[in-house]
Amino acid sequence: MTGRMKAGRRRSPFAIVTMILLAILWTVPTLGLLVTSFRTREDAASTAWWTALFNPFGSGWTMDNYTQVFTNTNLGSTLINSIVVAVPATVLPIMFAAFAAYAFTFIKFRGKEILFILIVALMVVPIQVAFQPMLNLLGPRGLGISGEFVAVWLLHTGFGMPLAIYILRNYMTGLPGSLIESAKIAGASHYQTFWRLVAPLSLPAIAAFATLQFLWVWNDLLIAKLFLGGGSNTTIIVALQNLLGTQGQGAELLTAGAFISMLVPLIVFFSLQNFLVRGMTAGSVKG
Amino acid sequence: MAGGVTAPSRTGEPAPASGAGSPARSRSGSPARPLRILVGVVGLAVTAWVVCTVFLAFAWYPQAFGGSDILIGLLGLVLGIGGAIVFFLFLNMAIEGLPSRLSGGVIPYAFLLPGLSLIGLMLIYPTAQTVIYSFANDRSTQWVGFQNYQRIFASGAFWQALLNNVLWVLVVPAITVAFGLAVAVLADKLSAPGEKTPKAMIFLPMAISFVGASTIWGTLIYAYARPGTAQTGLLNAVVVALGGEPQTWLQISDYRLNSLLMMVILIWLQTGFAMVLLSSAIKAVPEDTVEAGRIDGASEMRIFWQIIFPQVRGTVIAVFITILIVVLKVFDIVYVMTNGRNNTDVIANLFFRKLFTEQKAGEASAVVVVLLILGMPVLIFQVISFKRQEGGR
């Protein structure tokens, strides 16, 4: 992708300068967080974080905030909880959605259009509408699983389903129809076609959805707060929000905690971002 | 016909009147195979039962798993994936046991069944239930008519929150898309390796949670320290350097400044998302159309608005709507930073407060129904544009 440069157009100095400035501007807050998380409490309170950056040898650097976060707060165990919440909640919707997307893409049946329109419509519905009934259903008067990981897996699987079906179907409509047709002629059933052809070919879209869903589940505050509570099963985002509420004492731990909470999604994001872009653009850009 | 991999034999030539009923053999298809149907149905039931039982055991008896979160997570993952595979296997088996004339008609619904059941259970049923709750009292034991709605419409706090929500919706999607488009256009004028790093840097905040972003902006940008002491917040440091007084930014509600400052956080988070989608749309614009404009001597500005923009308008709208949906139910940032104080409340935060702090379930349901109605125009727009897009395929 050498893009337009090949066309013999000159580089635009204005574009170069503006892009560099914007990129720096966009990175400043995150950089500030990283810098502050390594500063001592006294330094962080008495001087601004950028002074440490301009004078790196004159300031006190420390790993204390990180060791403190792991020894004095529950952030370490909530980090594990977040993984236990996010990985199954990311993976579980995929197969259900993939079979549904297959049916929507490759099989003709009655009510197909209306059902898919329902899914498009549900992507707009705010999940808040589900909270009170689901709290009743999963709570002590219902199934009694509220506060446990299972409840959150179930909720994220359900809430993620419309988006998953939508992304996968969009991608599948772009697959070569002749390939599916020839499989049919060769006598393969839909079930076999799904496993041997469509599922492997849809991997980029599956990875795209998985990335989005993982970020969404990991970064979610509401569902974790309501359905896991503040107990031993809580996620790192809820723990961070609680830490944010306690001003003064332990304020220097906040930046280290925030950075720890961002690390896993950042790794996932950057390792899968190419899929993310490909999977998201497959259907939407055509319009 | 359909590859019989697992079924050992074709039993039941004259199909007994069980299962699918019709014993009539279709002229072209295979006959019913009751054994397959039986194995499939029993397998489905057993799989569903085992998975549900173990998943409930995770919740009810976590000690049985040594109280280990990691073990529960791993088992949940394995059982979830394995259960789904086995479930679909038996489902397919049961359907292939049907006479082929029937199975062809049933299979799409079978594929949809698990996914749509989950949607029905977690989205459609609760939505209907919430609408019902909004006409009932706080313990949902008695109908109260429109009383919940009358109460919220009579309170100034509701209108305040609604106004702020409208403001968020008007400001954030438009600015985010404009920034995203501008960055995408600029990036397109850089060399391929040169655009990669700046784009990644602007994309990065997308991975950051609302809570994390609020932590960053609250402690590093909007922080306040008494006049005379070192300002650790960037905004106040700039103000002081310019000779001003440090401000407690998030308490200033004049011109909704505090809300606007919180909107900046969301714009910061979402611009990268807009940029990435718009950038790939711009790259898909055929080069010859742009070249034609250039030969005609059109300015870069003109080329953008008259040649490139019309070709990416579909993506611009799609991105705008996606961000709009996020903004409509904005909650985390407001909840964490101000919790609605100083005139910053939004509908989703009001809902949260009504439901949990004030324990007014009826009014909370009414608030969330209002949020649902606010989303209706977007919903209708989405459905219409989807139908148009399908027509064009």
Structural write-up:
Chain B: Residues 162-385 form the ABC transmembrane type-1 domain. Chain B: Residues 1-31 are annotated as: Disordered. Chain B: The chain crosses the membrane at residues 35-58, 70-94, 106-125, 166-188, 200-225, 260-282, 303-328, 364-384. The complex is a heterodimer of chains A (287) and B (393). Chain A is mainly alpha-helical and 287 residues long. Chain A folds into two domains: 3-62, no CATH class; 68-284, MetI-like fold (Orthogonal Bundle). Chain A is built from 14 helices and no strands. In chain A, 52% of the residues are buried. With 393 residues, chain B is mostly helical. Chain B is built from 14 helices and no strands. In chain B, helix 5 (156-188) packs parallel to helix 9, helix 6 (192-203) packs antiparallel against helix 9 and helix 13 runs antiparallel to helix 14 (361-392). The longest helix of chain B is centred in the first third of the chain and has 34 residues, at 100-133. The radius of gyration of chain B is 29 Å and the shape is globular. Residues 1-27 of chain B have low confidence and may be disordered. Classes of the chains: A mainly alpha (287), B mainly alpha (393). At the A-B interface, helix 1, helix 2, helix 5, helix 6 and helix 7 of A face helix 1, helix 2, helix 3, helix 5 and helix 6 of B.
